[in-house]
């Protein structure tokens, strides 16, 4: 199990505390420092069963600067969104946990973290 975190994020810190309290075995990826490639983002999206716009933090300054609010959300625009996430990792929703069964969750709640641990 791996968790993508931004240490400055309270939801990330909460998820890590819960993983520790439950004795989970996991690795931490500080995705702002160890930026995921477009390929890794595609793989996580497949595991999540989501599209890139579903995990994009659209209220971030970078998102506003890029005008993401006005970008199309369709198959043709998918790669453009993935490139934006790879180029601006701060836009990636957090934390993301990749579970042992090959799935992943956006773990913004304790329930989502427990769900990932149970997979």
UniProtKB/TrEMBL annotation:
The lineage of its organism: Bacteria, Bacillati, Actinomycetota, Actinomycetes, Kitasatosporales. This is Arsenate reductase family protein. Keywords: Oxidoreductase. The keyword Nucleotidyltransferase does not apply. Belongs to the ArsC family. Pfam families: ArsC. SUPFAM superfamilies: Thioredoxin-like.
